[in-house]
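Chapter review: from sequence to fold.
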Amino acid sequence: MPPARKRPRAYDVSRTRVAVLAQFDRIREAVAGLTEDQLAGPSGLGEWTVRELAVHLTMALDRVSRQLVLPEPPGPKPQLTLLEWPFSTAGRAKGIADEARELAEARPDLVALYGETADRFGRLVPGSEGDRLVTTGAGTMRLGDFLVTRTVELVVHTDDLSRATGLDIPYDRQALAACTRLLADALADRAPGGSVEVRVPPFAVVQCLGGPKHTRGTPPNVVETDPLTWMRLATGRTRWAEALDSARVSASGERADLAPLLPLMG
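The token string follows.
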């Protein structure tokens, strides 16, 4: 019998909405202080400038807001679940990049753009109605699930923006927790089983990979890292061997090798 798939974690819609806005506010404050030279600099993400990265971060919120002024899409069930979402992003990268460039040219005033984006999200996105369907680039999702994916977008790109500019942009704890948990759960869903325990304190512990299941005592195969390193591994910003060599990941046991499973997101 194959290992059981991981059951989706429950997220509180209201708390997730607050976390999304809180992380966006931290980014908004940082972007407002960037000089034109900083904005014109490389983002570290392909050919994107820092300005285009900053614009893309407004798009992460606006995708939610704009859906809520449209009729709810048909169908009693979503086409895409929360645990499927991380694996759906790679094929849409070029379209997203092109959209960010176009918006950066059309809206040079980032302070105004961020203000309008936050205001629209605050007015239109409820802290309830989590089961309402919304349309995303990869298919329909529940609103509550789509909001959780926004924490991943914001946290991952906060890290990108910090590294590109030399700033130390803070993380909202709830946003960082939701991002960490979703990416950990996605790993467990990709490789179901109980032979390896992956720990990302203080936010997540999951078991993955088929084989002998750990039930008590110290697991024979353990991977442990911090939330930011885990996020970078899951999104390909850091390679497994690099994280091991720099001691940002500890891995004990003959099966504690996640390299074949990473990155989760392209």
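Two observations follow directly from the output. Residues 136 and 249 are 34 Å apart (CA to CA). The beta strands are 133-136, 139-142, 196-200, 204-208, 222-225, 249-252.
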